[in-house]
Amino acid sequence: VSAHLNKAGTLVNLEKYEEAIGAYKDYLEVDDQNPMIYTYMGECYEKIGDYDKAIEQYLKAIELDAKFHEAWYGIGVSYLYMKKLSDSLYYLNKAIHLDKDNPDYWFTLGNVQTNMGALSDAVRAYSQVESLDPHDFEAWVSHAELEFKRSGPVKAIEVLKKAYTHNSDIPAIIYSLSAYYFLTGEEELCLRFFDKGLRLNQNERQMAFNICRRLKYNYKIISLIGKAKNKKP
């Protein structure tokens, strides 16, 4: 039995998901009462884009254990990929009801709510992630984007300043701060954060330009990029 699981795990790590499904099926011939195996199979089907079969496996897991929150979450994710947002929302809320302290569940919920236009609900979901795992920088960035859409750059900066206390070396946080400071006219802070971002990872600077396209054509920003490129490793 363990040999089948080890083989499946190795195949998943190699991204050979169809072969991994076969290994999990071999395991089920010995033990077909383990909800985790059906969940693993669901994740594999999800990886190859067969969401209907993924949901089928997750439902089998739930039939065995109605409190198996990983399977409820898996269905929610599959429906998200299928763009069936109302269905996704239902299953994600089920997963969260069973495991309220899982930041991944809250983050995905926030993404669904954002796509549905329920921005206030999404802000609450991302805030929950920040509380559970303040080092989850993606939640902070997503939260800031929503505040920018709702209230403007000042609110976005408030969010990211809190994020920075936990993630002072994360380029996504730093470049985002740079862009929002540019939008508020605080050039010195904009340049300071952009320069720090370049020192950490030059390749991620597009994030700042995605927030504020004008920043890309600012001559001081262009100068900073030129200096960073000319520096010796």
Automatic annotation (TrEMBL):
Gene3D superfamilies, per the entry: Tetratricopeptide repeat domain
SMART domains, per the entry: TPR
Pfam families named among the record's database cross-references: TPR_11 (PF13414), TPR_8 (PF13181)
Name under which the protein is recorded: Uncharacterized protein
InterPro entries registered for this protein in UniProt: TPR-like_helical_dom_sf, TPR_rpt
Organism in which the protein naturally occurs: marine sediment metagenome
